[in-house]
Specification:
Blueprint (H helix, E strand, L loop, with lengths): L1 H10 L4 E6 L4 E5 L5 E14 L2 E6 L3 E4 L5 E16 L1
Antiparallel strand pairs: 1-6, 2-6, 3-4, 3-5, 3-6
Length: about 90
């Protein structure tokens, strides 16, 4: 899955980064001035967005449009994600 996402984003001219967090870690509410595409590689994470909570598990994606306020809570087994901007 990670290679598919990385290849797809690379073909679209979008650079990617990967990151991980431990169980229960949280991100406070924030936003970005760019479009962010996230792909959960392993574990799970819940993004809290204005339209409601979105849980990502391995292989699932979420697109956050510029300026979208969001926070997140990492699932019970941690998470590893890849993301692309632009």
């Amino acid at each position: 899955m990670s290679q598919d996402f990385l290849a797809e984003m690379g073909a679209a001219g979008r650079s990617t980064t990967t990151w991980s967090n431990g169980p229960g870690d949280r991100y406070a509410t924030h936003s970005h001035p760019y479009r962010k595409t996230l792909c959960c590689l392993s574990g799970s994470i819940v993004f809290h967005v204005p339209d409601g909570d979105v849980e990502l598990r391995a292989g699932e994606r979420l697109v956050l449009e510029p300026g979208t306020p969001h926070s997140a809570t990492v699932g019970p087994h941690g998470v590893r994600c890849a993301e692309a901007h632009g």
